[in-house]
């Protein structure tokens, strides 16, 4: 008898706990963000394409993104993406911030352009990548949304060129030149979210 007395409150707590847990699970949603962007900076214009996948909890989103970035030289950014929505039922303003690494992946033409004066290849390093901005999103049918987002983007890389120099007939020596590329640019992205 004594054990049954404690059994009902414990069962009640378990039922309430499972209901709360089920409600929390329903609040989490998988989201996919796919966008095209225009990059504008000191060295001209270029485009980028990105896909970001992650989870949304209420007005907060966190995910992992990957893309192609053609500004100055081709690279593949891999980054964490965080977003926060502000607004009404079907129209939202949002802010976003990305941070990660970009992997240099030069085209054959770019390898020729960035070759050293001895026509040897440059050794391009992978570097830091980040972007941040604001946006406006319109939900079209429950889950599908269209958005546009202006912002700021940055990628950094380093290149090294090694040449062997033999002045006159004296001893030869190896010369290494290092070039730092700090690429700041404005961006405008547009895409869909579902």
What does this structure look like?
The chain is an alpha+beta fold and 194 residues long. A hairpin with a 5-residue loop joins strand 3 (60-69) and strand 4. It starts with a helix and ends with a strand. It has helices at 2-27, 108-113; strands spanning 28-41, 44-57, 60-69, 75-87, 91-104, 123-124, 127-141, 144-165, 173-193. Strands 1-2-3-4-5-7-8-9 form an 8-stranded antiparallel barrel. 16% of the residues lie in helices and 64% in strands. The longest helix has 26 residues, at 2-27. It is elongated and about 80 Å long. The chain has a single domain (28-155, 181-193), classed as Porin, CATH 2.40.160.20.
| First-to-last CA distance | 55 Å
Helix/strand-derived category reads alpha+beta
Biggest sheet record: 8 strands, antiparallel, barrel
**DSSP helical segment count:** 2
- The beta-strand count equals 9
Helical proportion, percent range? 10-25%
Walk me through the topology.
Layout: H1 2-27, E1 28-41, E2 44-57, E3 60-69, E4 75-87, E5 91-104, H2 108-113, E6 123-124, E7 127-141, E8 144-165, E9 173-193
Antiparallel strand pairs: 1-2, 1-9, 2-3, 3-4, 4-5, 5-7, 6-8, 7-8, 8-9
Condensed summary:
The protein has helices at 2-27, 108-113, and strands spanning 28-41, 44-57, 60-69, 75-87, 91-104, 123-124, 127-141, 144-165, 173-193. It has 194 residues and is an alpha+beta fold.
